[in-house]
Please model this.
Amino acid sequence: MAGVGRPDTPRPAVARAPDATPASVAVARGQAQCHPHGARRVSVDSRYGPLAALRADPDEDAAVPGPPATAVLLPGYSGSKEDFAPLIDAIAAGGIGVLAIDLPGQYESPGPEAEADHRPVVLGSVLGDVVADEAAAGRRVLLLGHSFGGLVARAVVLTGAPVRGLTLMDSGPGELPMGRRRTQLDVLEPVLRRRGVEAVVELRDASGEWSSADPQVVALLRDRLRRSTATGLLGMGDALRAEPDRTAELVAAVRARRVPCLVVCGIDDDAWPVGVQRTMADRLEAEFAAVPGAAHAPNVENPAALLDVLVPTWRTWLRDDVAGW
Model:
């Protein structure tokens, strides 16, 4: 698996058939959040009301032996479940089910009324309940969080939720470092407070940020931003600029419960520097991968290369889980 490394850890040699992303599933660039997929729209219960989600069942013929597995996918700030559209069918074809979820307050999902309740530590408790429900249904949960969703995924693990593997994608050990993305949050906060979400949509339109995207994708991005709560955007934006480094806590948790970890990012990520993410992976004794041809969103910028990391890694984790490693 090119670009993936893990600290040397001796393990018994076991003959295994090679894993790869199923070649029969076409993944095209450009379609992004509007990429066609076979998932069905569902809702999952939460303390704030039903969270909108996309669920795809695994190809049972391709599944690794043992209880069924589901990849629970958490989006980033101002994102939604649709961010994972290019990944869904290939993951399911690899024998792993998919549950991609709006975070509370995003797009089609209700959220808490207080900004402070959109911090990772609170949302982690909410999504921890979702993970527990999946486990109670007999599914092994592989948890992935993108960007802000990675901070939430970390908090889920720290609640003690029954996670069998953790993937942090284009996420960091703590608050966003200084740079374009943090500056953008600083600029947008007073606009959002004084003039509301519609003014932020107008600013993004004027900036040309969406000008190169497909019109159908732009329409979706515009609609989901309009429908996301101002409270949620403010709360998550504040958390991105204040989240402490909780890596040491996470190291203790994953070691105690033997939860395998993967840190993956676009090779040109402009949020948390790639070196910072690699160092976080080292601290976690996690596998690390940098996806070529991608920046902060390999899930839409180069989904095929991302899948070539995710699917084989996750299938290996599931085999090891059955073997008791």
Summary: The chain has one domain: 34-323.
